[in-house]
Design brief:
alpha/beta
């Protein structure tokens, strides 16, 4: 079985066809999905999906790309995370790729999420793009890792170097691979995936984006996460069932979900 550790099925293009989404998950042995929050105004939709479907979990957080949105406080994140179906804080992190100028607000937002994670004991879902050095530095400064008494978490949709992956894993974080790893052009990322132990690995779709080969260019959905697992099994020369089982076990362990 497989688990999509990061998706956005509350986004309109997927929310409009949820029965089909869940049917395709079942067809492809995708048993669970984590629907990830990107801002507070839409958080009630994310939580509602988790409440309505036993195999859906949720997070609470504000994406670093969302500049014009209510700023989350530590107290608010802690309050909203106080629900059995909320298993993580995020997605949070830093993204210097799309935004310009003084991005100190991004760094302060990231720190707020890490502090909320430490208070709640719920792991972080971290997004980093063109900001790896600052991301790792702030994680270390704020004690995000299990080695510093934090809750740890996952570096989602990982596209950084092996050195960044190793720094995150040294703090007790998992590394999650999306459909990007299946792209022919992703040779450097494939080398990273080859080096990351299965015991520290998750799989995801980040749907509705980044559909894996052979569906690249189409709308992504949780049922397609099996293709990420299949690619990683071939890359690492591991039995597919071992990749499926280990990434599933990792998911339940990281997010402290009782099966």
């Amino acid at each position: 079985m497989y688990i999509d550790s990061h998706c956005h099925i509350n986004f309109p293009e997927l929310a409009a066809r949820l029965p089909d989404i869940f049917s395709k998950m079942a067809d492809n042995r995708v048993t669970h999905a984590l629907c990830v929050s990107v801002d507070l105004p839409d958080f009630p939709q994310v939580l509602a999906l988790a409440e309505q479907h036993a195999n859906v979990f949720a997070s609470v957080g504000v994406h670093p790309d969302y500049e014009e949105t209510p700023e989350p406080s530590v107290d608010e994140l802690v309050r909203l995370a106080d629900h059995p179906k909320i298993v993580a804080i995020g997605e949070t992190g830093l993204d210097y790729y799309r935004l310009q100028g003084d991005l100190e607000w991004q760094r302060e937002r990231f720190r707020a999420h890490i502090r909320a994670s430490r208070v709640t004991g719920k792991p972080l879902i971290i997004h980093t793009r063109a900001a790896a050095e600052d991301t790792i530095r702030i994680m270390q400064e704020e004690g995000a890792g299990t080695n510093a008494g934090g809750a740890g978490g996952v570096m989602h949709c990982f596209t950084e170097s092996l050195e960044v992956a190793q720094a995150a894993m040294a703090m007790g974080f998992y590394i999650s691979f999306s459909g990007i790893v299946t792209f022919k052009s992703a040779k450097e990322l494939q080398a990273v995936a080859l080096a990351v132990p299965l015991e520290r690995m998750l799989i995801e779709t980040d749907s509705p984006y980044l559909a894996p080969v052979p569906h690249r260019g189409k709308m992504n959905e949780p049922g397609l996460v099996c293709h990420v697992a299949e690619f990683l099994a071939r890359l690492k020369e591991e039995p597919l069932e071992r990749v499926a089982q280990q990434t599933t076990d990792n998911f339940f362990s990281l997010f402290r979900i009782v099966r």
